[in-house]
């Protein structure tokens, strides 16, 4: 009798298991069918006109992204990549800076768009003489695999302040789109200092206070020899870039607003890159624990930026902050005038 009950129970479990698997397969098929119902969206503009070959479902690009991820892990053969027409493309847009302006956040958020593929690591091709000497083909092979109609974006914040970079990028592509994300200059300088300070403390090394670095002790004026201060003089660096590229090829992203209201900033970037609008509020949710927005790619995959983002800044003498803001003010005004974008900086 006991044996019969065990057999009956085993049969019941098998039936329930089959039902569960069947339900899961139905959901997968359902999601797939919904994806296929998405409208066909031509990606056109300066990156190439629309054609029958250039038209593709953006959901299909999301599938390709998964395939690329598997290839990077070594789980996909080169033959599969060839069959799916995957290529390594030179970037059509570069986030050239600014350090501690929010370059990583911007890159990760743009990667929400199915027509965008990001280079995960900073390549440092144009600002590093040794890398640059390896040639453009070396640079291209550092790019991720992508679908031909996708655009590749890389970011290396050092590009913005390195003298040789504008000419080098111009030689590669004179019509490339350039993204610059900036924060209020004093806040950015303190953030820059905070990152360096953390690195020193990790190695049990001492470091000067921010006030001692930012203010020249001999003149009591702002120390323009301090790199964190120099980097925040945005207009000085931008003028160097304008010798090679017209202002229309630049887009200024408000890094402070990207923290508090990311969607409007991302929509402006989509428009600048001639991408169909696809990033929505659904893709962005506020994480109260971290104090930042995190990314939602789909119902399964979410992503928050690394814990190193959003470091707590040390307290800085208010008189030094006032002095710095007064120093940056005329440079900021000129930056607004050149770019045509006025930011809410004190």
TrEMBL record:
Sulfotransferase domain location: 91-335
The record's annotation in InterPro entries points to: NST/OST (IPR037359), P-loop_NTPase (IPR027417), Sulfotransferase_dom (IPR000863)
Q: Select a single GO molecular function from the record's annotations and give it.
A: [heparan sulfate]-glucosamine 3-sulfotransferase activity
Q: What is this protein called?
A: Sulfotransferase
Q: Which reactions fall under this protein's catalytic activity?
A: alpha-D-glucosaminyl-[heparan sulfate](n) + 3'-phosphoadenylyl sulfate = 3-sulfo-alpha-D-glucosaminyl-[heparan sulfate](n) + adenosine 3',5'-bisphosphate + H(+)
The UniProt entry lists the main location of this chain as Golgi
Q: Which positions does UniProt annotate for 3'-phosphoadenylyl sulfate binding?
A: 100-104, 183, 191, 293, 309-313
Identify the domain of life.
Eukaryota
Tell me what organism the protein belongs to.
Octodon degus
User: EC number(s) per UniProt?
Assistant: 2.8.2.-
- Higher taxonomy: Eukaryota, Metazoa, Chordata, Craniata, Vertebrata
**Gene behind the chain:** Hs3st5
